[in-house]
Amino acid sequence: MSKIFKSKILNTNNENFRDNFKNMLKDFNNQIDLIKNCGGKAAIQKQHDKGRLTARERIGNLIDENTYFLELSKFAGFDMYKEYGGCPAGGLISGIAIVNGINFMVIANDATVKAGAYFEVTLKKTLRAQEIAFKNNLPIIYLVDSAGVFLPLQDQVFPDEGHFGKIFYNNARLSANGNIQIASVMGPCVAGGAYLPVMCDKYVMTKGSSMFLAGPALVKAAVGQEIDAESLGGSKTHSRISGIVDYEVENDYDALTKIKDIISSININQNNTHNEFIDPSLSFDDIYNYFDISNNSQYDVRELIARLVDNSEFIEFKENYGKTIVCLNARIGGHKVGIVANQKIVIKTEDNQLQLGGVIYNDSSDKASRFIMNCNQDKIPIIFIHDVNGFMVGKHAEWSGIAKDGAKMVNAVSNSIVPKITLIIGGSYGAGNYAMSGKAYDPSFIFAWPNSKIAVMGGDQAAKTLTSLKVSKLGSISDEEKEKIYKKIKSRYDIQSDIRYGAARLWVDEIIEPKDTRSILIKSLCIVNNTSYINNRPNYGVFQV
């Protein structure tokens, strides 16, 4: 029988903790405002002067009223490509939007950033959006406005497996899978990029836009023909001569209306279902007084979970065994889920041994492995909540077979057939990241709070280890020099473990505000509910015992 969680932090009022959250979120939202400024005011005005909307304006006019756009990978390209003036949001806006009552993946080139040219991170973002759509049977809308490959970095975007050609490979695979794809060319669509709209089910093109495999300058250089862009590949050419374009429209607004008209004329499975549910009985606001984000402090993760799940009610699995991982069944937005979360309080075992919070031990790994298999048997999605330091190390852990028990958990996660949603709320270090379904383990979505960190180990431990190695090679040096080396290494690790660094490289799908966690989980569960996993059976291969 499920139990409503009785909170022990209702009267907690720690102003320092709350102020730390407040300051962090202020900086976080300021950075988002800068990202949403796209390529800057001048670039936005230039787009408007052409009679065109920006990518964000197009999406705003496309989605249904009183719905919100679940944007993904806003921090793509963050602090990267500085020598080229930066690449806000990776020069591409992607996310899930409701159009005509249906959930769509929307992928829109941002022409205010290097004319919508593709950097490597732009490609990664596009491919991830296509992957999410493929997994979850989502239809896709492409709003195309791109000058093609960013030529100064062409070696990073053209020939490899995960480069430009993969977009068109995915177009073909998505079409074969039955995912509806609608493309609207609303500006330039050049070179290899011209294949994208042609490989979609429906093709809309605005007047004044152009699409060609080679522009006028290249055509002249290659074959000696002189021809203007409109005659070569304008909307009139492709709607009346080549016959490639399905619908020629006047402007951006007409293009967005045409997309909605197209959607209303075809049968698409309803993928925006809503369940009845009871809101949590506990206020999420309490968490801001309870979590100390400035310090790796102890906390009971069930206090957070009770503020995410319906009616603050859950059934805990093996609650008195393997306590450094909490496993439980609950509902979120009416969706049945299993939750695997790192427990951050120090545990005293039955044989009087102390277990550190956030560390995975033999017993907790064993428990989590079994619970993950249960969720696969029960056909329910799993939510992994990370604040993990890694697996236990040392003589006792090795002699007890921690590698064997850790391998069980990794095997169970790797071979799960149910959707996995990952939420990082603190640290996600080393093999703990793997066992808790990090990016390499194919989660349907991976979200993180702004205070999160991802690295092979904590900055302090890494800096001490590397300093020790470097000092051993240098021989006898002063304590002052040792301290300099340590600080330099730690500074680099701190930068690289910051969640914005990871989000810039798409290690996570989005950094989210803590207060939005429940609503984003509900939306994500609605999306993964469209996957066809119910009739599949997991195969775990060989398990170490």
Relevant terms:
19 helices, 545 residues, alpha/beta
Task: Describe the protein's architecture and organization.
It is a single chain. The protein is globular. Helix 4 (120-135) runs parallel beside helix 5 and helix 16 packs antiparallel against helix 17. The two termini are 31 Å apart. The chain has helices spanning 15-36, 41-49, 55-62, 120-135, 165-177, 195-198, 216-223, 229-233, 235-240, 252-264, 301-305, 362-378, 395-399, 402-414, 430-435, 459-474, 479-497, 499-504, 517-528, and strands spanning 3-4, 70-72, 92-99, 102-109, 140-146, 181-190, 202-206, 210-212, 247-249, 313-317, 325-332, 335-342, 347-348, 354-355, 359-360, 382-388, 390-391, 420-429, 445-448, 453-455, 510-511. A hairpin with a 5-residue loop joins strand 13 (347-348) and strand 14 (354-355). The chain is α/β, with parallel strands linked by helices.
How many strands, which pairing sense, and closed or not: the largest β-sheet?
Answer: 9 strands, mixed
Spans where pLDDT lies below 50 across 5 or more residues? none
Question: What is the β-strand count?
Answer: 21
The helix tally amounts to 19
The oligomeric status of these chains comes to single chain
